[in-house]
Amino acid sequence: MQKTLTQLYRYTFVGGAAAVVDISSFALFSEIFQIDYRIATIFSFTLGALVNFSLCNWLVFRGKLSPLWLVFIRHYFSGIYGLLINEVSMITLVELLEFEQLIPAKIISTGVAFIFNFLIKKFYVYNNSYYSTFDKKINTKRRV
C-alpha cells in the first residue's frame, strides 16, 4: 500500500507536468491556430501522453520493464481510454452544458481523467507479471 501511495504522489507531479503540456498545447492549437477543440484535444493529448510516458517510466514506476517498445505501446494505448474520458468530458461541458470557456473546460476534463489514468498505468501498463510472462513466451520460442 505504501508503494502505491508513493507512486500516486509521484504520479501527481508527473500527471501535472503532462497536464501542463496537454493544456498549454490545447490552448495553442485551439486559440492561436484556431483548430476545432475536438481535434485540438487529440493533438494536445498526444503530446501530453509522450511526456507522461517518459516521466512515468523514469520517476513513478521506475521502468525496468522489457521490452521498452512494448511498455510504450501499452502506455499509449491505455492512454486512449484517458483520451476518451477527456473527449467525452469536453463535449459534455462545451456542447451539452454550453460551457463557453474552453481552457477551464479542458482543465476540468483533464482532472476527471486523472485517477483513471493512474490506475490503468499501475495495473495494466506497469504490471510486472505481464512482462515476465511475455519474456518467458519469447524465450521459449527462441529455444524451439
Describe this structure in words.
The protein has 144 residues and is an all-alpha fold. 28% of the residues are buried. The chain contains five helices and no strands.
Unreliable stretches (pLDDT < 50, length at least 5) are: none
How much β-strand is present in the residues?
under 5%
Number of strand elements: 0
Note the overall shape: elongated
Short description:
This protein is mainly alpha-helical. The chain has helices at 2-32, 37-60, 68-96, 102-125, 128-143.
Please tag this protein with its features.
single chain, mainly alpha, 144 residues
Topology, please?
Blueprint (H helix, E strand, L loop, with lengths): L1 H31 L4 H24 L7 H29 L5 H24 L2 H16 L1
Helix pairs in contact: 1-2, 1-4, 2-3, 3-4
